[in-house]
Amino acid sequence: MNSHDFWGLVSSVFFLSAIPAIGHQIRTIAKRRKLRALGELNEPATHSVSVNQVFSSFFAVYTFFIFGLVVDSKGADPFLTYPRAIVGLLLYWIIWEIYRERRTSGSRAAFYIASGSILLSVLVITSGFRGVTASYWVANGLVSLATVMMAQGAYSQYRTLKLNRSRGAVSLPMHVVLYLKDLTGMIYGFQIGYLTAWSIIVMHLVNVIFRTPIIVSYLNLRRVAKQDENEANAQKPK
C-alpha cells in the first residue's frame, strides 16, 4: 500500500467514524422531541443547533463528493466519494429535522438548496461529466465557496452557543470527530498533491481553525452546568 492509499484509507476511516457521531446528533434531537411532546422540555428539540453550521457542513461534504467525481478521468476517487455520500445524507437528515420544526426562511432555504444539490449530484453521476479541465475548476470553485460557508457556519454555531449559554442539542462527539476528520483529510490532500488538491487542503485547515472554538465553548458550558448542578445538590436538605 502506497502513501496515497494509506492516508486515503485513514481519512476515509475518520470520515466514516463521523457516522455514529452524526447519528448521536440525530438521536439527541429525536430524544428531545419526545421529551418536548411529553411536556418535559420547554425549548425546541433542535435548540442551539445552528442550521447555518449544519448546512455549511453538508455543502462542504457535497463539494468534496463532486470533486471526487470529476478529479480523475479514470473514474471517481473512492476515498472522496463513497464516505461523503453517506455522511452527506445524514447531514441532510439533520437539516430536514431543523426545517420541519422551525419552518423559518433560513431552514427552508437550507432544506431546498440541499435537496436540489442531491438531485444535481445524481445528474453529474449519470452524465459522466468528469475528468475535464472545466469540471475540475468548477469543483475547485465549489470547494472554495464551501470553505467560506464553513467558516461563517462554524462562527454561527460558536456565536449561538455563546448567546444561548446552553449546549441544547449540540453534539460534542460529532464536532470532535469532524475535527479529527479534517486533520487527516488535510494530510490526504497533500498526498493527492498540493497543485491538484489545494482547495481541499485549505478547507480542512479552515475547518480545524474554526471548529476549535466550538469545542472549547461546549466544554466550558458543560463545566459551568456541572458546577451549577453540584451547587444545587449541595443546597438540598439532607
Description:
The chain is globular. It has one domain. It has eight helices and no strands. The mean pLDDT is 83. 40% of the residues are buried. By secondary structure, the protein is mostly helical.
Strand content: under 5%
Number of strands: 0
- Total number of domains: 1
What are the low-pLDDT stretches, counting only 5+ consecutive residues below 50? none
Helix content: over 70%
Average pLDDT: 83
Main sheet characteristics: none
- How would you spell out the order of helices and strands? HHHHHHHH
Globally, the shape reads globular
Distance between the termini: 64 Å
Task: Assign the structural class, choosing from mainly alpha, mainly beta, alpha/beta, alpha+beta, or little secondary structure.
Answer: mainly alpha
- Rg over CA atoms, rounded to whole Å, is 19 Å
Helices, by number, come to: 8
